[in-house]
Every structure is written in C-alpha cells, then in structure tokens.
Protein: Carbohydrate kinase
Amino acid sequence: MKTIYCIGELLIDFVAIKQGNDLSKAKEFTKKAGGAPANVACAISKLGGKGQFIGAVGNDPFGTFLLNVLKDNRVDISLAQRSKTFTTMAFVSLAEDGERDFVFSRGADKKLKYDSKLKKQLKGNIVHFGAATGFLGGGLEEAYDRYIFDAITQDAFISFDPNFREDLWRGEEECFIKKSLKFIGKSHLCKFSNEEIQLITGEQDIEKACNIVHELGCPIICVTLGSEGTLVSTLNKKTTVKSIQVAPVDTTGAGDAFIGCLLYQIANIGDPHLILKNYDQLIDMVTIANRAGAITTTGYGAIPSLPDHDAVFNN
Ligand code: ATP
Structure:
C-alpha cells in the first residue's frame, strides 16, 4: 500500500455556538480541528490507509490539541512541524442575514519549512496538495513549489484540490487562479467543486471547463456535485457517477472524505499511475468515494464524521 502525503494547513476553527450573530456579537465558540489537507489525511487513515500529514502548527496548546486529533485518527505526524509562531485560527459565524462572518488569524501554517528528507520518500507514492492557505505566501507556498518539483522527479502520483475560499481571496481571485493553473498542469488528478472549476477556467459549462483543464495537462478530473454525485472526466470519456441517498446535517468535510477515499483506493492498486489507464476501475472507485462523502454529511463536523472502512466498503 502506497503512502499518501497530504501537505498543507492544520488549524483551529472557532465556530460560534449560537449562529445568527456576526462575530462582533458572538459570545461563545467551539474549538474544532480544521484544514482540508489534514482532513484528507484523517479520511485516508480512518479507512486503514497510510495518511501522512506535512504541515506546521504552533508550539502551543492548540498545536498540541491538533496533533493529538491527527494521532487519534492514526495519521502519521512524524514530519509535522512545530513553530514558535502561534497556531493558525479561523473564527466563523453565520450572521443574521445568513452571510458567513469570518476572521482569519494566520500563524504557524505559513511557517512550514521545506524538508529535503521527504524527497526520497515520495518515490512512487502519492502526494496530495490541497491547502486553502497554500498560495497565500510564506514557507508553505515555497514548500509547495519545491515538493511538487520533487514529486515530479520522483514519479509520485500528484493530486490537487484548489480549495478556493472566498473569504481568503476576495478581490485577489486572479492571483489565486494563476497559482492554481500552475499546479493543475502538473497533476494527475484534480478535484474541484463546480464553482471552483468555473472560476479557474472562466467557463460556465462544466464539461467544457473539464476540457480546458485536460488541455492544461491534467488527465483525471473529479467535479464534486453534492447530492448529485461526481462528474468524472478523462480525455476520452465523461460520466456523472451518482451518490447514495442520505439525510445530510452538515456538509463540512464531504469533499475531503471523497478525495481521501479515492486516493486510499488508488494507493491500493500497486502503481498509482495504473489508474490513468483503467476508466472502469476509476468509476468504481468514485462510486465508493461518493459513499464516503455522503456518509460524512450525516454527522456534525468534518473529522468526527469521517467514515471507517466498514461503513464505506461493507454496507
Ligand atoms: P467541501 O465543501 O468539503 O470542499 P465539496 O464541495 O468538494 O466539499 P461536495 O460536493 O459537498 O464536496 O461532496 C463531496 C461528495 O460527497 C459529492 O461528490 C457526493 O458524492 C457526496 N455528497 C455530498 N453531499 C451529498 C448529499 N447530500 N447526498 C449524497 N451525497 C453527497
């Protein structure tokens, strides 16, 4: 079984307990582990795979809390880093008008230092780039540039999820698009929401948008469509793979569960690159990954709702 290296941010989400107030009025918050690449590492490990997290947290109690969450989910954190800078935090509340109010306090995640030890370990394995903060500068962005170069030279299978966050990029969308395009062209698999692929390609028709992404050099695209399932696109074929019916209560983390489950399966076929030649197997894998995404929506919070192997494969 191949290892899947998930590189990016791990942070504290402080979510207002009583929704309907903007942050100026919110009084109490719950502390939750957040960060898409960390969620993906947990999704993989919870299924029984080898998920490794590469990222930085502060050398403070929040950093300890976050690393313990990953450890409890059997994620390998041996290459995670502790920084003197405080752990990154996001404060979130839904205001009276339903708009998200958001304050982002960026700390340790941007302090990630490139680690040359990882280069050899990447050989033939899988690397997932999925940081919402990965293109916001600092050490993390530098590490992204160097690790993707290493991943190419080590023949690793490269997965990319742009994780566009409106709150972080308002007014700077063009910069986000430019940086995403660079990664798309180097990836074997890209996962987008339909809004993300429309934003990045400038094309509203999703199938045409997929063709633009293929032209950039990415051979496999998954566009997640919530309850509608996932559009799978390769150079020759496109299929919308249906999801299962569930009663969702919180969709946070569904996309991370989906890509985690897909990568877990790709890690189990020997050479991950073989998936590029087997469309039917890819569709079977996406059918199962849809189930992982769907199950995640039936519980509150991302990491606590990620399904284990039995829930996804034996039901
Ligand atoms: P995120 O907001 O975490 O970045 P995303 O927008 O990429 O996620 P979604 O489309 O919400 O991800 O969900 C990922 C996958 O989970 C979908 O492709 C689908 O297969 C499954 N899924 C999500 N919501 C539902 C639902 N309500 N019913 C059934 N399946 C769902």
Summary: Residues 193, 224-227, 229-230, 243-244, 246, 248, 251, 253-256, 258, 290, 293-294, 297 surround adenosine-5'-triphosphate (CB under 6 Å). Residues 7 and 54 are 5 Å apart (CA to CA). DSSP finds eleven helices and 14 strands in the chain.
